[in-house]
Amino acid sequence: MNTTLTTLLAPAAAILVGLVLFWWLSKRLTKPGVVRTLVRLVGLAAVALVGVTGGLTLMRSQIQAAAATTSTPIVSERASVDYGELTVTLDAVGSLEPGDTQNLTFSASAPVTEVLVSVGDYVHAGDVLARVDTTDLEANLRDAQLSLAQAQASLDALTAPASELDIAAAEANITLAQAQLYSASQGGSSEADVEIARLQEELARNSLWQAQINRDMRVEQEETRGGGVNWLEQQQYDSSVNQAENSVTLAEMDYEDTVNSGPSGSSLASANASVASAQARLEELQSGPSETDLRRAQISVESAQLEVDNAQEALDDATLVAPFDGIVAEENLIVGVVPPSASAITLIDVSNYRLNLSVAESDVINVALGQPVDLAVQAINDAPVSGTITALDVSPTQSGQLISYAAEVTVNPTEDVALRPGMSATATITLESYDNILVLPNRFIETDATTGGAVVQVETEPGVYTAVPVTIGARNSEESEITSGLSAGQTVVVLTRETSTTTEEQSGLGFGIAIPGGGGPPAGGGNFTAPAGGGGFSGRGG
């Protein structure tokens, strides 16, 4: 119920109450004639007076409570439309990570003998960080070096040119073998044949003794080194001895045949084999080794060299060395204890940092490699930190209904800013830049309550403001491009309303009742023009 209706009904209700009271009194009075009439008139007057007075009093209190309220538009900020620059950016949050992090480990399983660094130490590339025991590793390296030397000696002997003495000996062996063949073919055993057979038996026995001595020496060497002889090696050593024993047996049989009988098939075969072997030996000395023998010797050298390289690498890995300049972030070593296999020492490179960002799918189309990035490090206010987009994933990361893409920012080197791993930073990626366009701060732009379009309050003349529809182009969090609706030089304002309450009293009823005055609009309010179609003002605070 509004104020006007209340002020009319209140006195009417008071009068009605008075009439009801008067009727009730007239029913109770018993005096006839004039007295009764007089009493009724006096009662009616009294009731009317009470009703009117009460109604007017109630009306006055209600009108005072609903005093007149006025509002006046006030300019909180004023600006001139002008041309300028506009940069469109994208903000994302991440944390700083070191440019490089490495978990350093030992490949050898040996007790730690020395730890030279602690957590927080700054080290340079090549600095020794820790060492483990190298006793077994050094022994392995010596064995590998000996095997390499033996393989190399065999290759050198094979590839060395034959001396004149070697060739002369080979030719003499051919002559001897041919003489033996001739003697065996004559059918009788001369004293020379018998002597030759005896000498061959003696040579075979000498070869057997030499093979046995070589076998025993190799076994003793292996046992001295602590490794022992395995089954395969034992079979190889025994094989050479067995061959020598077989040669002795054949020489003994040949000698007995020569002494006790004439030429035999075995003697002739043996003599022919000796001639062929002597001739092959001479040809080998004259033409050099075969491709097969040469390649076999070379493979032996290469295999031995590989063993030496592996042993040397294992020995080198017994010393943990810093691969780059950095800070020791973690150290998990105890002297006398075998180091962990996962991470002995963690080293981080703090000379450069990177920032991993998550870019929404709606924004990633505007992000590209090489784009500049401004960084706001929360722990260091106003720090001049910048970077560049150096990586952008082509495959998305999905979390529920949210799809994003990982981007990496490489932070530019900073000398005056003490960055630390894990610091939170806000990256502002520059997407687009515009020059020589109409630019207006966003606080001057309103939203029309009816159309939903953008409007700007333009001061058309002093004290007169008009809501002008505008078209927005590019925009960022602070400014927007005005593509239509405004021109350079116009004055735009941010309006607010100041609310005030006033009561005007007028006398005239003789009962101390104040009647509110009607009248014109509030001072200064007549020049305000509301936004088109809005029906009211919807300004944005300055």
Molecular structure report:
With 542 residues, the chain is of the alpha+beta class. Among the domains are: 3-66, no CATH class; 138-313, no CATH class. Helix content is 41%, strand content 29%. It has helices at 3-28, 33-65, 135-159, 164-185, 191-225, 231-260, 265-287, 291-316, 361-364; strands spanning 68-80, 82-104, 112-115, 122-123, 128-132, 319-321, 326-331, 345-360, 372-377, 385-392, 397-399, 402-411, 424-441, 445-447, 454-461, 464-475, 479-484, 491-502. Strand 15 and strand 16 (464-475) form a beta hairpin. Helix 1 packs antiparallel against helix 2 (33-65) and helix 5 (191-225) packs antiparallel against helix 6. It is rod-shaped, with a radius of gyration of 58 Å. 16% of the residues are buried.
Task: Summarize the helices and strands and which ones pair or pack.
Blueprint: H1 3-28, H2 33-65, E1 68-80, E2 82-104, E3 112-115, E4 122-123, E5 128-132, H3 135-159, H4 164-185, H5 191-225, H6 231-260, H7 265-287, H8 291-316, E6 319-321, E7 326-331, E8 345-360, H9 361-364, E9 372-377, E10 385-392, E11 397-399, E12 402-411, E13 424-441, E14 445-447, E15 454-461, E16 464-475, E17 479-484, E18 491-502
Antiparallel strand pairs: 1-18, 2-8, 2-13, 3-5, 4-7, 5-6, 7-8, 8-12, 9-10, 9-13, 10-12, 11-12, 13-17, 14-15, 15-16, 15-18, 16-17
